[in-house]
Amino acid sequence: MSDSVIVLDTLAQTRIAPSENSLKSLVTVADTTFVRLADYSNDFEYDLRYATENNFLKAKVYDCAECYTRVKTAKALIKANKDFIKQGYKIKFFDCYRPNSVQYKMWEIVPNPQYVANPVKGSIHNKGGAADITLVTIGGDELDMGTDFDFFGRKAYHDNMDLPQEILHNRKVLKETMEKHGFWSVRTEWWHYNLSSASNDRIADFKWECN
Fold this sequence. Notes:
alpha/beta; Muramoyl-pentapeptide Carboxypeptidase, domain 2; 20% helix; five-stranded mixed beta sheet; two-stranded parallel sheet
């Protein structure tokens, strides 16, 4: 199928309900384990677009909405979110870990590497080290980032300075805080962040259970 290594990793609607039980601890969990973020923090918001048809594919490619990452990514996201909360914001997710089989589905719909990573090579989303995010106020109102998620055009570029100051400020807060916690951005997508230490992780294809 490809020269990529596909592995099955340990598993530890668009909006995810908070965990009904007390929050779990990441202290003793291996960094490469996949975990459900909502089990470890109630401070995130979710609008997982690929579990709906409200995305650039115009297709639902997840059976249900969940946000999983590897433990090291979850730790970094939780730390970054605590930093955002001190500033009056919190993270809202559009996408998290993406099984490689879903990457193949996306490629079948849009086989263009400008918009979808070739599943043979995979992406850091397939490794559990990437997140597509925005910021919301503590009350849940989205900050104006200038475009919607998955808008492919110059208006979404980080280096496009021809935007209102409010938008530039919001993007700067998002970018600087994420970089402070070990993430790097994609120049053409204000919403996309990769954990630097996840680049060499293996592609995975586990699927979470849907209730």
